[in-house]
Amino acid sequence: MNWTPDQPLVRIRDVVKRFGQLTVLNGISMNVHKGDVICLIGPSGSGKSTLLRCINGLVPIDSGSILVEGQEVHDPKLDKLALRRKVGMVFQQYNLFPHRTALDNVMMAPIHVLKRKRDEVEVQARELIRKVRLQGKENSYPGELSGGQQQRIAIARSLAMNPDVMLFDEVTAALDPETVKEVLVTIRQLAEEGMTCIIVTHEMGFAREVADRVYFTDGGVIVEHGPPDQLLSAPKQDRTRAFLDKVL
Amino acid sequence: MGAGDACAGVYAVIANRADFPVLLPFRPGTGGEGFRLSAWHGAAVVTALVFAVALGEAHAQAGAATPSILATMLKWTPLLAEGFALNIAMSFLAMAIGTLVGVPLGLGQISLMLPVRTSSWFVTQFFRNSPWLVLLFYCMLLLPFEVHIGNTIVPLPGWLKSTIGLSLPVMANVSELVRGAVRSIPYGQWEAAESLAYTRMQTLWLIILPQCVKRMTPPWMNLYAILTVATPLTSVVGVSEAMTLTGDILSSEGRTELLVPMYLYLLLWFFLYCYPIARATLRLEKRFQVR
Amino acid sequence: MGLQPVWDWFRILHETTGIKLTIFYDAFDRARFFNGFLTSVRLMGVCLVFSVVIGVVGAWIQGSRFRVLRLITQGYIQFFRNTPPLVQLYFFYFALGAYLRVSTGNGLTVPLVSNFTWAAICLSFYAGAFNVEIFRAGIEAVPRETIEAAESLGYSRLRAYAYIVLPLAFRISLPALNNNLVNLIKTTTISYAIAVPEMLYVANQIWSDESNVPEMMNVLLIAYVSLVGVLVFVMGRWERAMRVPGYMP
Q1: How far is B33 from chain C (nearest CA, A)?
Q2: Could you read off the pLDDT tens digit of each residue along chain C, which spans 249 residues?
Q3: Residues 6+ apart with CB under 8 A from A75
Q4: Quick check: A80 contacting B, CB < 8 Å?
Q5: Facing residue for B41 by CB, picked from C82, C90, C187
């Protein structure tokens, strides 16, 4: 229970998840330490997005354990709110709240959920928006922003909760190629500042640049993992090689 | 949509999908229950009225003692106005009561607690499946003529009982409206709110419902128009509103050539009231599509 | 009769609790109410069938080349859709009905068309007007390219419509059609206003005779909700069976 920073920030052991007859996660184990940047790659349906959702408790698991800072995520007595404050998530479809401005979107959760004072939240929110290079867009509504801009606001929104680990679920998959880069730059910046990131992505070039370790999943299991240079250029497993041949 | 399927039934909202690749959108002229008023309808009613008055004058008996149809219509207009005011009053009240009760009922349909969900669903379906006229009869005949609340005695006149009777289907329709609107919000909104540690209540009040209000307003206004046009049903159960009064006027005047013009006149009143509402609804619909 | 014990139970119910359900234990009232129920069901059935037929025919005419036909159909639709059904009913029965009289042998005139028939005609056309729109929208939701694809496979225009467009259009329109039909059978109760002896009217007669308003009103409410409920259920099953997989309008 007493977690110390030398232990893994996120510890996943033998996680199994089924949807009806379909086994989406079939015994996944991994350790993520503070400051690690992990990329998950693999074919669609291999369970990557589901794994992310299991880590922050959006989806329950059937067996296994996930510990975030020593707390078991799927303990029924767990204070989910406390967990969500530590784990931030950014989605493929941005999911900004369309009826509020960009600034409001970033400010809402700290005010409503963390019950912090409006003034200090606003200062932090403006700083975050500046950090994602969208100063001047505070009063725009999501409908008025491009996909890449919306995604960066979504990142700022999750950062406003001061999480310890950020989960990125194929955040560039719904974007035009021109706007993909601006989002990747933002994520890389975060990674360089020491944020622990678990990124599900198709962008192999990005994974090579930014990841400390890359995990290749297929059919609900981790087939292979290792540093990006090694895995992406000289994979050991045939399945990995077959997948990379198709996408690279 | 694995995450969507995994969560409890009420969270399993169907995600917004782009148009199906091999089919165009399905757009009947109006919704299943609505009708869209336009200036043409007003023109049609006025034309028919003019025609009927002219025809009636031509058929009128030769005796010059009988006043013209137009003069008769004008003579009775104040009385008709009173009756019409009752129709409007009933429609306002029924809409207000129906909405006030319907919104919590609709939220009950998406509750996480099974008993609340089932009973809300049952009540909604029950009143959606009841004919409006039967509900009117039920309330007219079975509601007491006065209610004792504490020390005060509140009288329930006939028109009030009918209004309550009309508010029941409104309540059921509003409940369905609310449920449909909440379900139409993309599932991603719930996910995003949940991952930001919003509680379910907070998510509903701060994120989902504000977005629903815009979607619900045009069909809600349409429902009001339908309700207003349904208020003449209360004449069947004996309420002295515009329809009943028109019948009374016709029988007291006793002139057959007044029959069609008077009813067309009544139709014109309803049109003049409902048309601005229909226009406003159209404007709101267009505005809410842009965002 | 085999059911006599059942009827007697209701009589005992009345004697012990005062709940007066004469429609069960009194043979005359029983017959009256049953006939009223049958009339209701008959009216609903006739209107359902005819409104669909009118909808199909109207949708077909709307696609015709002849402008006159299209205009007439459009006029009909606008009239029936934009006036309240009660007013339409009165108009048909009192205004038109006053002119459509035939004389019997001995100098009297009787209405040519009974009130049941007027109600059936009026309500069928009322719902039919909406059905035309619904079927039309269903047909238009099938893109031109689909018909082109069918033709390039060798289907003639007519066959393409019969085998591809219409089945698709029907499946797409089904939810809206069901909504309309459910509204239709709820609306049939307004025929009370022109004294059609369906359930509501007959119940009125019974409670005037027997002074058992609460019992009759409750029976009525349950009876109507059940009838509508049956239709909703059947239509729902049919809708699910006819659903186009993956299509969510």
Answers
A1: 7
A2: 578 888 888 888 888 888 888 888 788 888 899 999 999 999 999 999 999 999 999 988 887 788 888 888 888 887 777 677 888 888 888 777 777 777 777 777 777 788 899 999 999 999 998 899 889 888 888 888 788 778 777 777 888 888 888 888 888 888 889 888 998 999 999 999 999 999 999 999 998 888 888 888 999 999 999 999 999 999 999 988 888 776 665
A3: none
A4: yes
A5: C82
The two three-digit tokens of residue A235, written as one number: 């994979």
Q: What percent of chain C is modeled with pLDDT above 70?
A: 98
Phi-psi region of A96 (alpha: psi -120 to 50; beta: other; left: phi over 0): beta
Yes or no: say if A139 and A102 are a contact pair by the CB < 8 Å rule: yes
C79: number of Cβ within 10 Å: 16
> What residue type is assigned to position A236 of the chain?
K
Q: Which two tokens stand for residue B92?
A: 């306002």
Query: What is the C-alpha to C-alpha distance for residues C213 and B261, in angstroms, rounded to an integer?
Result: 38
Tell me, yes or no, whether chains C and A touch by having 3 or more C-beta pairs under 8 A.
Answer: no
What is the rounded CA–CA span in Å between residue A52 and residue A110? 22
Residues belonging to chain A: 248
Q: What is the distance between the alpha carbons of residues B143 and B131, in angstroms, rounded to a whole number?
A: 18
Sheet holding A10-19, edge to edge: A22-32, A10-19, A63-68, A71-72
How far is residue A213's CA from residue A215's CA, in Å, rounded to a whole number?
Answer: 7
Q: Give yes or no for B3 touching A (CB within 8 A).
A: yes
C156: three-class secondary structure by DSSP: coil
Measure the CA–CA gap between C70 and C64, rounded to whole angstroms.
7
Q: How far is CA B275 from CA B38, B99, B280, B287, C93, in A?
A: 7, 22, 9, 18, 27
What are the pLDDT digits (tens) for B84-135? 999 999 999 999 999 999 999 999 999 889 999 999 999 999 999 999 999 9
Q: How far apart are alpha carbons C247 and C249 in whole angstroms?
A: 6
Dihedral sign for Cα atoms in the order C24, C27, C33, C35: positive
Dist. CA B152–CA B175, nearest whole Å: 32
SS3 A89: strand
Chain B residues inside the 8 Å CB shell of C221: 130, 134-135, 138
- Whole-angstrom Cα Rg for chain A: 18
From CA B219, how far away is CA B133, in angstroms rounded? Answer: 22
User: Going by C-beta distance under 8 Å and a sequence separation of 6 or more, which residues neighbour residue B208?
Assistant: B182, B185, B189, B190, B193
Task: Fill in the amino acid letter for C229.
Answer: G
Query: DSSP letters of B75-118?
Result: HHHHHHHHHHHHHHHHHHHHHHHHHHHHHHHHHHHT-SSHHHHH
Q: How far apart are CA C58 and CA A51, in angstroms?
A: 54
List the Cα angle B27/B32/B34 in 5-degree steps: 100
Quick one: A241 exposed, middle or buried, by C-beta within 10 A (0-12, 13-18, 19+)?
middle
Strands A87-90 and A63-68, bridge-based pairing: unpaired
**Please, what's the b/e burial string for B167-187 (b: 16 or more CB within 10 A of its CB; e: otherwise)?**
bbbbbbbbbbbbbebbeebbb
CB contact C236 to B (< 8 Å): no
- DSSP secondary structure string for all residues of B191-217: HHHHHTT--HHHIIIIIIHHHHHHHHH
**Sheet containing A196-200, strands listed edge to edge, beginning at the edge strand earlier in sequence:** A87-90, A165-169, A196-200, A37-41, A213-218, A221-226
Test A19 with B186 for CB contact under 8 angstroms.
Answer: no
Classify residue A94 as left (phi > 0), alpha (psi -120 to 50) or beta: left
DSSP state of B163: H
